[in-house]
Amino acid sequence: MDFWVFLSRVSDAIGIIGIFTLMSSGYAAYRLWKQNKQLKEMLKASPPSVENFKEFVKINEGVKSLNPHALVISLTKDGSVKKSVDAFLKENVREMTIEEVAMNGIKDQDDIEKFINEVKQKKQYFNAVGCTELHLFIAGPVIMGTMVGAILDNWIPVKLYHKPTPPQTPLYQYWGPLIG
């Protein structure tokens, strides 16, 4: 075989590889352009801020569905707040099933891991029993409330309650729904 035939075949192979690379790059550029367009449309569709929050809170206040449940999270050394939440719900909202995650404080990362797993198990339980809205009461560190919000992520309406200091009547106040 002569040198020029060999060089011609190598040139053809490089050309084929180049065409394949050009087509692959074009397809990737098209997909990125399409994804970027979708993201821009989603950004335009979502409002930049919360509007009419007071009205939104009022609309979501109370029990609005057939199978509400309450989740009480007690993470302080003072013990469980389940009894006070139960009394509050019976008197001011409606009697409902209450599930609790209780720990004697959060001391280290092992406690955080245990806490996260328990909250996830409660979420699975609420799904299994067909819970239609969740009334959430938390006594503990703020960072744990942040983690709970991330886990629950408003998969069903989650209604947040606050215990004012000093205590008032009623003992808890509805502050609004969890907003994603």
Biggest sheet, in brief? 5 strands, mixed
Overall domain count: 2
Low-confidence stretches: none
What is the CA-CA span between the terminal residues? 70 Å
Q: Determine the number of helices (DSSP H or I, runs of at least 4 residues).
A: 5
Dominant shape:
elongated
Using only C-alpha atoms, the radius of gyration works out to 28 Å
CATH architecture of the largest domain: 3-Layer(aba) Sandwich
Number of strands: 5
Query: Per CATH, what is the topology of the largest domain?
Result: Rossmann fold
Helix content: 40-55%
Order of adjacent strands in the largest pleated sheet: 2-1-3-4-5
- Name the average pLDDT: 88
Q: Could you spell the SSE succession in H and E letters?
A: HHEHEHEHEE
The secondary-structure class comes to alpha/beta
Q: What is the CATH level 1 assignment of the largest domain?
A: Alpha Beta
- How much of the polypeptide forms β-strand, as a percent range? 15-25%
Tell me what you see in this structure.
The protein is built from five helices and five strands, in the order ααβαβαβαββ. It is elongated and about 100 Å long. Strand 1, helix 3 and strand 2 (97-102) form a beta-alpha-beta unit. 52% of the residues lie in helices and 17% in strands. The chain has 180 residues and is α/β, with parallel strands linked by helices.
Keyphrases for this structure?
180 residues; alpha/beta; Rossmann fold; 2 domains; 5-stranded mixed sheet; 5 helices; 5 strands
